[in-house]
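Quick one: structure for this chain?
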Amino acid sequence: AGFKDLQQQLGRDEYSKTPYPIKHEFSEDRSLRRVLKALYSNKDGDAWLFTILLRDRLRCDKTSGLWYVWDGNYWKVDRLEEATAAVEEVIRFYQTEERRLALDYQVAFARGEAEKVADYPRIQKDLKSRINILRSAHRKRNVLRLATVGKDSLAISGDEWDQHPWLLGCK
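Got it. Here's what it folds into:
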């Protein structure tokens, strides 16, 4: 699963511009309901979206307190704060949704069906506001912290490393 799958399932091509694959939990229904869930769940929603978008790329070892990045062959310590930079994926997702809502609103308005999408301008405004908030260092730290809370998070206990003692870990 990757960005192409996300693009196909959500019916958008903006995701194809991202250079690495992701897995996701979005269904084929264009998922406005899930976008709204993330948006209106505030910090928890941003962390939930971050976890979905980066599940196969990032891990946080709670014992060491270090973030790890998957490089395609092994987990390496995140020395360049790629986890923090990856919050940009959530921003990009919200930007894409905001643009899609704007286009859908214009199309509905042109067809005389603006009442069907009457909430879209408010949602767009809320998305733009969230995008600005996510650009702050404080919000990025909160997203990272919340993305490591709970069983379905990006956190690991540290016991997961080296589960196969006969497997040679080579670069």
